[in-house]
């Protein structure tokens, strides 16, 4: 398969090309909105088969991407870019998992009858056209495309330039799935150029695109948020806390703190700051710290924490609002639950925070007063993930409060409309 | 009561003042989020009493507004601005009606348990701080303030400059209600200046304000949408259609068309275009037209409509996408339901559209394929109103698909968060 980037004409040419892509997406969205669950699932299952059948082409495209990227890539970027047989199989299985999810479209969210006999039914419908702008992980192409399709939305995908050929090969397989099910190819379109100007043009196409989902690092998300004329579903910082309450079970506290910090340090749900009640700090902090040292974690603490273990470095003010995404933890000893809640309100990012306590009243207070998308009692912050919520795949986690908060799965990619049925009613 | 506009300093002074207002709102929002239903309702009921008790002050403030506005106001604007005893009583009753609504906050939207024992509860929470920017109707001050309060949000209100004194007098009454219930005065704040620069500053305060709701004409909404760095819940055009299907009951069609157009012509749910199936146009259009002539409606139609009644003027292409908000109707004869759906998709504004039919399959097809917030079968488009939906008061109707679609009541002014309860679970 030969992938040919479109000719680099003047930016007007690119704008025309993208406008045509937007019009095709809008047309496809109309067809997808009324597509049957059966057709959408058939497309996803056929796409999974096509991904497996074209593994050789996808791997060759991925080789070409890595060759073109050359030696300039960091090890982390190269790892995210690289596909192998296992990752291709995982992509195919993810498509099948999305096929197995319940179809949110057409479901009644609420239904009631007014005294005048009018029957109101609030029904889930797709959003329309979703643009997903992401970095160099080629599997996002399949994940984002499949979630949009299942939720009845047309997708315009703009992948990272490093994964250009891989993404094209994956989209070709998705198109074979759409063709099997008789759904329009324009249901999933990939921007056919590496030209960075394309992103700016897409973000201005507010007639053609209903929502933009950026997936990637902070600089990408900030650029998209600043430039977009279209609503953005975004993920900002994950400055997550675990608060060990005075009524914490010590064994649970140790296990939850260790897992929240070190299971994976680079995920948004990783704990960045540990708060511990002064009443139990002297008893419980040593064991917690021992686990963390054992796991290779660097520790920075306030004076009270350092008084308990002088090997803890001094934390600076900046530490409390830093998302390390690394094996580093800041530790503060607090005067009870209200100071913990206040600290989280001041320094946190409204993402995911946990309390460890056996005191039901303390748990309720923390749940009610911590203004975060996900608030946990006696569980690891690393559960901040759509899959762990039982939502199947996720397109990301929203740190905003509008439209969707927390994990964004197929249900969060929908809107609703009202079906109102009467028998000739007019309004007095 | 003497109302003193703040001194007009340089715009930095205004920005500082508004930033302080934003900080007070954020602080109040934290208190409102955990306020009891009892306290919020007590504040609303006490505010209704205060509105009644201060009727004389409110009327005096309103007199002053009308005096300052002078002769420059149109009759329509003057009518919207003017308060009288009946309108003050209606405002008090609206506050009591909001008190009687169910409290959306803290309610569980969904709850489930995962195989690892984690209990997930998706719970409604307030959005935070809502800015409402409106024109010269002083009663919006009470409506918007009460809906924000009931939904646990702090409100920053920016009323039209013509209603400056009236709005202040109304907010003073709302503050007396808040004081009775022990809730913070900053729960409802009015921008204390007529300086138009205030709107631009507010729209940039994305740290302090979570959502902006403009209420007013198209130019206000367009300005707010263009300038805002904060998500906007907006109402654009209401180009609403009634389609009279070949299987329409003629009596229902006449009643629904007449009511949809002429009950009130200036509301967003008023019909602007009538579509009628060619098979029944010759039979049914004459009666429909007779009713409309009788009501003083101007008619503009396509050639087929004019062939049936030559008194109908010729419609131009622009008529199909015009929101008249007046006693004018465009009429098109279509070749069946699919052409009607296509017309609505092309010229409509995704607001409210109705079909008149006794054919259940046609009704289902119209409901599924017309992509509008409200789609009705055998009922007037004038039911497009939160009150008629049984939602109590509404802050407006959203024509967007994100977050809220259709009438925006207290439930639509909320977000959600996840309460996750475990017993020590860590993620494998």
In short:
2 copies of one chain form a homodimer. Chain A has helices spanning 11-33, 37-53, 55-69, 75-81, 85-100, 139-150, 164-180, 197-203, 218-227, 250-262, 278-294, 303-308, 337-347, 360-369, and strands at 108-113, 119-126, 129-134, 154-158, 188-190, 211-215, 240-244, 271-277, 298-301, 313-314, 328-334, 352-356, 374-379, 396-398, 406-408, 414-425. Chain A is of the alpha/beta class.
Number of helices of chain A: 14
The main sheet of chain A comes to:
7 strands, parallel
CATH architecture of the largest domain in chain A: 3-Layer(aba) Sandwich
Order of helices and strands of chain A: HHHHHEEEHEHEHEHEHEHEHEEHEHEEEE
User: What's the CATH topology label of the largest domain in chain A?
Assistant: Aldehyde Dehydrogenase, Chain A, domain 1
Please state the oligomeric state of the protein chains shown: homodimer
Helix content of chain A: 40-55%
The share of residues in extended strands of chain A comes to: 15-25%
Poorly predicted regions of chain A are none
Give the CATH superfamily of the largest domain in chain A: Aldehyde Dehydrogenase, Chain A, domain 1
Q: Mean of residue pLDDT of chain A?
A: 94
Which overall shape of chain A is indicated by the principal axes computed on the Cα atoms?
Answer: globular
Biggest interface and residues each? A-B, 61 and 61 residues
């Amino acid at each position: 398969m030969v992938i040919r980037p479109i000719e680099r004409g003047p930016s007007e040419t690119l704008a025309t090309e993208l406008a045509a892509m937007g019009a095709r997406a809008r047309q496809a969205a109309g067809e997808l909105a009324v597509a049957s669950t059966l057709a959408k699932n058939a497309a996803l299952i056929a796409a999974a088969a096509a991904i497996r059948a074209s593994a050789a082409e996808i791997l060759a495209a991925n080789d070409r991407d890595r060759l073109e990227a050359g030696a300039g890539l960091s090890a982390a970027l190269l790892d995210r870019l690289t596909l192998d047989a296992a990752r291709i199989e995982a992509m195919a299985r993810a498509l099948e998992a999305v096929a197995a999810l319940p179809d949110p479209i057409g479901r009644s969210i609420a239904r009631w009858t007014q005294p005048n006999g009018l029957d109101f039914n609030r029904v889930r419908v797709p959003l329309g056209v979703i643009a997903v702008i992401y970095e160099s992980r080629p599997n996002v192409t399949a994940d984002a495309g499949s979630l949009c399709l299942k939720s009845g939305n047309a997708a315009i995908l703009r992948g990272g330039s490093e994964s250009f050929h891989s993404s094209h090969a994956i989209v070709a397989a998705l198109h074979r799935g759409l063709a099997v099910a008789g759904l329009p190819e324009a249901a999933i379109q990939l921007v056919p150029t590496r030209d960075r100007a394309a992103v700016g043009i897409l973000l201005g196409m507010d007639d053609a695109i209903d929502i933009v989902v950026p997936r990637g690092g902070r600089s990408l998300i900030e650029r998209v948020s600043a430039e977009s004329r279209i609503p953005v579903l975004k993920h900002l910082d994950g400055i997550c806390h675990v608060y060990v309450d005075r009524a914490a079970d010590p064994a649970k506290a140790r296990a939850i703190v260790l897992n929240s910090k070190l299971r994976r340090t680079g995920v948004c749900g990783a704990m960045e700051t540990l708060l511990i009640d002064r009443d139990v700090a002297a008893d419980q902090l040593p064991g917690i710290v021992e686990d963390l040292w054992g796991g290779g974690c660097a520790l920075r603490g306030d004076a009270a924490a350092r008084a308990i273990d002088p090997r803890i470095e001094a934390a600076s003010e900046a530490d409390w609002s830093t998302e390390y995404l690394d094996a580093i933890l800041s530790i503060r000893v607090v005067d009870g639950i209200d100071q913990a809640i206040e600290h989280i309100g001041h320094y946190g990012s409204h993402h995911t925070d946990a309390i460890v306590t056996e005191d039901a009243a303390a748990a309720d207070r923390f749940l009610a007063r911590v203004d975060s998308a996900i608030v946990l009692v006696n569980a690891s912050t690393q559960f901040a993930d759509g899959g762990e919520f039982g939502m199947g795949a996720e397109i990301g986690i929203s740190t905003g409060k509008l439209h969707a908060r927390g994990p964004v799965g197929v249900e969060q990619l929908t809107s609703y409309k009202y079906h109102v049925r009467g028998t000739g009613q007019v309004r007095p």
